Amino acid sequence: MAEITACRSCGAAGLEPVLDLGRTPLADRLVTQAGLAGPEPRYPLAVAFCPACGLVQIRETVPPEVLFCEDYPYFSSFSDALLRHSRANALELIAERGLGPTSLAVELASNDGYLLKNYVEQGIPVLGIDPAEGPAREAEKIGVTTLQTFFTAALARQLADEGRRADVIHANNVLAHVADTNGFVAGIASLLKEEGVAVIEVPYVRDLIEHVEFDTIYHEHLCYFSVTALDHLFRRHGLYLNRVRRLAIHGGSLRLYVARRERVGESVRSLLAEERAAGVDRLDFYRDFATRVTGVKRGLLELLRGLKAQGKTLAAYGAAAKGATLINYIGIGPDLIDFVVDRNTFKQGRYMPGQHIPIYGPDHLLEARPDYVLLLAWNFAEEIRAQQAAYEAAGGRFIVPVPEPRVL
Ligand code: JHZ
Predict the structure, then answer these.
(1) Tens digits of residue pLDDT in 151-185
(2) Which of 254, 380, 385 to mutate to test the pocket of ligand 1 (most atoms within 8 A of CB)?
């Protein structure tokens, strides 16, 4: 593991501390039965702010091969809401830009093909790029051509030299994951056709701070972006953030439309102005965050321990990466939570990192009927509650941890 001393984006020194989450295990490194007895590495997890360009970031860089290659358990296709969200995005771009059989849609971090399959369906050539073996294999199975590797500036140049430049580049929830932030953006610049567009989704740091979504901080997420920080980043590589949309997905995200030509629209100007007014580009905005995080920790422990003391049984829903941060930072172990359920079959039969709570399929909820279920995947609360209507009808109650612990 390496620790940065300068900003990941602009290279300035003088990063200011924002929050220290202590030493946590890797959020997506679920433990197998055989691994329970073995050692489990923990790494420091500390958030900092760059006063020069406004980028919020963690200091630690765990090597990407360790994080993403083998045994990566995240498969995008397990959320219906995410599938609908991605399909609508693809169909809108295909119509808006008149894409057809001579176009090329590329996705960086294409996972199991959840997005590009919508282009394949319409006869539009695609190229997925993703280093994670399991998801890449699933993508190939559904006809999404995938290069199983990391996207880098060198790979982008190679593809461009081979005449494989893109009309559309998607990059959802990956920009924050790459250690070489500038190399990745430079790669987008060289892979994009003259009139092409890169459509990039990232969690929005303003939502993270305002809704105390501290659990979305883990070693995979190196950066936490504001529009201000993104604007600086793209301009450094001759790219322009021309349009931006706020989305509800993942607790609040930004969808960025980035191109080689400068055509900055009102959506970008007004969000930049809002950020200036709210102070998102200044350290002050982040000063009381650590105190608010401690407040959630205290409140949630009190609530769960109180229920336990009354003899109630507790479980959790969603073996999400964010769930791993939450339970490890707060110290929620098998003494409080009996089990976690998750739809992802790859995660079932394994154990949560650090706390070693067993993971079962969602059916277990109705079988075991715990009195309360902590929603670790609170970002999909609506979808999960709809699916678990029978559990609630039978008297079960859900608890959301953030922005403040609350029984639904
Ligand atoms: P989910 C992911 O983080 C992955 P995670 C990644 N680290 C990232 O950047 C962020 O998103 C943005 C399950 N589930 O997607 C599926 C059900 O079981 O919120 C997942 O395991 N039933 C790349 O891992 C988990 O919950 C359901 O009905 O924090 C949700 O994890 C639904 C909807 C989900 O994110």
Answers:
(1) 999 999 999 999 999 999 999 999 999 999 999 99
(2) 380
Question: Could you give the CA distance from residue 266 to residue 61 in angstroms, rounded to a whole number?
Answer: 36
CA of 269 to the centre of ligand 1 (A): 32
Rounded to an integer, what distance in angstroms lies between the CA atom of residue 144 and that of residue 160? 20
Give 250: exposed, middle or buried? Use CB within 10 Å, 0-12, 13-18, 19+: buried
Determine if ligand 1 sits within 6 Å of the CB of residue 74. yes
Protein residue with least CA distance to atom 2, ligand 1:
321
Q: pLDDT tens across 202-243, in order?
A: 999 999 999 999 999 999 999 999 999 999 999 999 999 999
Residue 333's pLDDT is: 98
Percent helix, strand, coil in the chain, to 5, is: 40, 25, 40
Ligand 1 atom nearest residue 78's Cα = 16
DSSP output for 53-94: T--EEESEE--HHHHHTTT----GGG-HHHHHHHHHHHHHHH
Decide: 57 in ligand 1 pocket, CB within 6 A: no
